[in-house]
Design goal:
The model has no long low-confidence stretch (mean pLDDT about 90). It contains 8 helices and no strands. With about 230 residues, the chain is mostly helical.
Length: about 230
């Protein structure tokens, strides 16, 4: 064993160098003196239930205040119905998942779309429109099917994520064509005003992701380039 500063040979058990006074560093003893915990620390997730409870109480209070104001001032809901339906939609989208430690996406994605569809139906009925069945209902239904399938595939299928995302991107591009077609039928607008642009963007992205998934060398290069 030698002094780390002046290089003098040291005897066993020496605490300091007799020449320069530098404390002796023994790597074997230093490693032995390190103390490690017997168990790895457990990752604790903070519960979101208190936040969900507070948001629920605030939502209930706001809804009650709006209900009282509308009934006392107008004798009916009037504008209060729009606000209450908006509060209900926001509760389903943002507060309801907080009651669960790990909200299952394959359950909440359809639930969110159902809440959005009911909100749009209420708006359509209150405004005297006729756009829900020819436009809003098929759009929310198609979006629900696409996103539910995507979440289930990403959750339960191991590997192949570039292929899954590439296929989803291609389907999403085609879905935008359907949305503009339904818009044309429901509102009388012209076709191919914007959907061709989204189709091109999602199509190029989808083909690129499919190539990344089907060509291992390209996948490895991009993963190494951007994630390493």
């Amino acid at each position: 064993m030698y002094c780390v500063k002046c290089g003098v040979r040291l005897g066993e058990g020496t605490e300091r160098c007799p020449l320069c006074g530098t404390p002796v560093w023994n790597p074997t003893r230093a490693a032995a003196e390190k103390s490690y915990p017997e168990e790895l620390p457990r990752h604790t997730e903070e519960s979101t239930k208190p936040l969900a409870a507070a948001a629920t109480a605030l939502s209930a209070m706001a809804a009650l205040i709006i209900l009282i104001i509308c009934l006392e001032k107008y004798g009916e809901m009037r504008w209060g119905g729009y606000v209450l339906s908006g509060i209900g939609l926001a509760y389903v989208l943002f507060v309801l998942p907080a009651w669960f430690r790990r909200p299952p996406p394959e359950v909440f994605v359809p639930a969110d779309h159902a809440a959005i569809a009911l909100f749009l139906l209420y708006m359509c009925v209150k405004t005297g429109g006729s756009w829900f069945l020819p436009f809003a209902f098929p759009v929310t239904g198609g979006s629900c099917l696409l996103l539910t399938a995507l979440t289930c595939l990403l959750k339960y299928v191991r590997g192949g994520r570039p292929v899954i995302l590439g296929g989803f991107s291609l389907l999403l591009g085609g879905f935008t064509l359907l949305v503009e077609f339904l818009e044309t039928v429901a509102f009388g607008t012209e076709m191919f005003q914007w959907s061709l642009y989204t189709l091109a963007v999602f199509g190029i992205l989808g083909i690129f992701l499919l190539l990344c998934g089907l060509i291992p060398a390209l996948h490895h290069h991009l993963k190494k380039r951007f994630f390493y």
